[in-house]
Design brief:
The longest helix has 30 residues. 71% of the residues lie in helices and 0% in strands. It is mainly α. The protein has two domains: 155 residues; 66 residues. The N terminus is likely disordered.
Length: 237
């Protein structure tokens, strides 16, 4: 009975999540394709365009779209993705920032550092978030240890403030592999979530939907295991 209850909860979670329209899904696919081919400039340009098309009242969609993009974007581009999203639609800035809670603590710090730097350079474009970023940055900063700052590819001052010429932080191969594993498993999760939504729309049999949810459950377990490996590598050397 407990297992049946868990499947029901999972079904309700996906059924009632803020949906993305067809255009947003197409934009997300184009962004993911651009990043996967190493064309970060094109990917960031599509991010700006995608958010510029959202109405100011669509906070839930803005948060969902940000989360989905961050889940597949290279972690070293996370800060630039969030900055580009806010540039595209400053009125939705706080909704966009709320999506970073789904990322790791070091990634949150890197994102907020990048946004803070953007505010200092272009305050007129980030007025909606300028009041909240300092407190968010201070909170994130307090939660990241010195060892994580020095070893994690997520928090790299040269990526955040490349204009200052700060030297790159250490970047160990084992940690890079952990990050790659997380990104790949997040891509699998995204694909399986999309398959589940497609199957729901197509009114597929219950057995098909349960199989979709089992894959999603397994993907989430894999991501947790990857994140555990990363924490151990960060603190075990």
């Amino acid at each position: 009975m407990k297992n049946n209850g868990r499947w029901v909860c999972l079904c309700m979670t996906f059924a009632f999540a803020a949906p993305l329209g067809a255009e947003e899904i197409d934009n997300r696919a184009a962004i993911s394709a651009a990043f996967s081919m190493g064309n970060s400039s094109e990917g960031l340009a599509i991010v700006r365009q995608a958010f510029a098309k959202l109405n100011p009242g669509r906070s839930a969609e803005a948060k969902t779209l940000t989360e989905s993009i961050l889940a597949t974007a290279p972690t070293e581009l996370s800060g630039q993705v969030v900055v580009a999203a806010i540039e595209g639609n400053p009125a939705l800035g706080n909704a966009i920032l709320s999506a970073i809670a789904s990322t790791s603590q070091t990634e949150q710090l890197a994102i907020l550092s990048r946004v803070s730097f953007a505010i200092s350079r272009e305050p007129e474009n980030f007025g909606a978030v300028s009041a909240s970023v300092p407190n968010l940055l201070s909170s994130a900063d307090a939660n990241v240890s010195l060892s994580e700052r020095l070893t994690s590819p997520d928090y790299n001052p040269s990526n955040v403030l490349s204009e200052t010429g700060v030297l790159m932080s250490p970047n160990r191969p084992d940690i890079r592999q952990d990050r790659r594993d997380i990104r790949e498993d997040r891509k699998k999760l995204q694909a399986n979530e999309e398959q589940y939504r497609d199957d729901v729309k197509a009114h597929k049999p219950l057995q098909v939907l349960l199989a979709d949810l089992q894959r999603i459950f397994n993907d989430r377990a894999d991501i947790k295991a990857d994140e555990k490996d990363l924490r151990q590598d960060l603190h075990g050397h």
